[in-house]
């Protein structure tokens, strides 16, 4: 079995120059948590497409489910760099709850930033303990991360809004207890917002709602058995005159784009951390396997012939890590750098795909052994290049920021 443990005194000395003692404590906690999970469970979550809810709850109980939020709402008061370190370690070991944990925190962010005090206490506190699992409802069959193209509608009706439409490829959708949903509000808004609009004027704006799983008119649609990112109950969400109380509006009418972008910018940094973990896991597997084969005499030639390629892969991993933690650091300053987040997400996911591909090519058929996790990382990294805004879109966003 592959030995993925990398904790050495020299490594710890090196890390102490890059991170604070608090950040290193979260890194060690995440590493210990990840390394205790049997490799058989990691493989089964992927092969059978199973979500381990109990494992998710355990991670939350250890403080990882609301790490960047204050203790007032059940969080642990950590910073975003610490949360990225947790995500990197979980991805390195392909922990079955990695993506769900990232999305869970992504969903708490808008509640914390835009929610009422009642909403914060109702949703953040049980989320921190893992009693609640959250999912983010933005992507639609005809709209990815482009809020302008959304077709799901919300129409005011007394004490409720009626939501109609479909969301797709929703991570944790099949297991979540509540959802942050973006919908296009149509018709007259409810009071007190109606007084802010000229008489007879119609609203056609994107608004955010907190939708609970048991609201009338809400249903789980098609469940996806995908190439990568398996084990996260990814599915469709279907709204058929779904009754959402007015009190469950998040922010104000028309704030949906603001709510979505505030979460997605941080979400891209989280994905960059995960992708850095994938790349590190692939590099670990390659190096460990080459060393073992050389000691056993299974590699008859000297390893020097591969040293240049392995060195390039190590540089790719570290370059992604530097960009990722620069972006995470900007979040902790209170002024997230959206362009840097796009650079980090694009670089880290592209590099993860490159490292996994090269590792499998070097090891040939041996690289496809499930215990190495290389083929899973290969499949997950491809998904990472697509979701939260494709890498082609990231390049456009970067160019737009530079040329505006």
Name its key features.
12 helices, Butyryl-CoA Dehydrogenase, subunit A, domain 3, Butyryl-CoA Dehydrogenase, subunit A, domain 2, Butyryl-Coa Dehydrogenase, subunit A, domain 1, alpha+beta, 3 domains, 404 residues
- Overall average pLDDT: 90
Q: What's the CATH class label of the largest domain?
A: Mainly Alpha
> Structural class, from secondary structure content?
alpha+beta
Strand content: 5-15%
Query: Which residue ranges are poorly predicted, with pLDDT under 50 across at least 5 consecutive positions?
Result: 194-202
Biggest beta sheet summary = 8 strands, mixed
Tally of DSSP β-strands: 8
Question: What is the H/E string?
Answer: HHHHHHHEEEEEEEEHHHHH
Helical residues, percent? 40-55%
Which CATH architecture of the largest domain?
Up-down Bundle
* CATH-defined fold name of the largest domain: Butyryl-CoA Dehydrogenase, subunit A, domain 3
Give the C-alpha Rg. Answer: 22 Å
Number of domains: 3
Q: Tell me, what's the shape?
A: globular
Q: Say which CATH homologous superfamily of the largest domain is assigned.
A: Butyryl-CoA Dehydrogenase, subunit A, domain 3
Q: Count the helices. How many? A: 12
């Amino acid at each position: 079995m592959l030995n993925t443990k990398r904790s050495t005194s020299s490594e710890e000395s090196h890390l102490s120059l890059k991170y604070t003692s608090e950040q290193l404590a979260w890194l060690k906690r995440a590493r210990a948590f990840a390394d205790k999970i049997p490799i058989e469970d990691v493989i089964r979550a992927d092969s059978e497409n199973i979500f381990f809810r109990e494992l998710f709850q355990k991670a939350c109980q250890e403080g990882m489910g609301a790490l960047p939020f204050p203790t007032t709402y059940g969080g642990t008061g950590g910073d975003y760099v610490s949360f990225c370190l947790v995500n990197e370690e979980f991805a390195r070991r392909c922990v079955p709850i990695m993506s769900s944990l990232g999305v869970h925190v992504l969903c708490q962010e808008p509640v914390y930033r835009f929610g009422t005090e009642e909403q914060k206490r109702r949703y953040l506190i049980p989320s921190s303990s893992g009693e609640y699992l959250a999912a983010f409802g933005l992507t639609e069959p005809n709209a990815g991360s482009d809020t302008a193209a959304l077709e799901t509608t919300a129409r005011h009706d007394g004490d409720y809004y009626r939501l109609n439409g479909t969301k797709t490829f929703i991570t944790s959708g099949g297991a979540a207890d509540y959802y942050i949903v973006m919908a296009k509000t149509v018709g007259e808004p409810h009071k007190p917002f109606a007084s802010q609009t000229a008489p007879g004027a119609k609203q056609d704006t994107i608004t955010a709602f907190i939708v609970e799983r048991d609201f009338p008119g809400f249903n789980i649609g098609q469940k996806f058995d995908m190439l990568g990112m398996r084990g996260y109950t990814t599915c469709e969400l279907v709204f058929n005159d779904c009754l959402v109380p007015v009190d469950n509006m998040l922010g104000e009418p028309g704030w949906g784009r603001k709510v979505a972008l505030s979460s997605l910018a941080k979400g891209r940094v989280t994905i960059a951390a995960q992708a850095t973990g994938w790349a590190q896991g692939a590099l670990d597997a390659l190096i460990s396997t080459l060393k073992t084969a050389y000691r056993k005499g299974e590699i008859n030639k000297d390893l020097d012939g591969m040293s240049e390629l392995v060195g390039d892969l190590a540089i790719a991993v570290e370059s992604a890590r530097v960009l990722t933690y620069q972006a995470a650091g900007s979040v902790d300053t209170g002024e997230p750098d959206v362009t840097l987040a796009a650079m980090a997400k694009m670089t880290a996911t592209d590099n993860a795909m490159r490292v996994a591909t090269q590792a499998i090519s070097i090891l040939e058929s041996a690289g496809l052994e499930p215990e190495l996790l290389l083929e899973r990382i290969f499949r997950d990294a491809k998904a990472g290049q697509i979701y939260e805004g494709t890498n082609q879109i990231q390049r456009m966003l970067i160019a737009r920021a530079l040329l505006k």
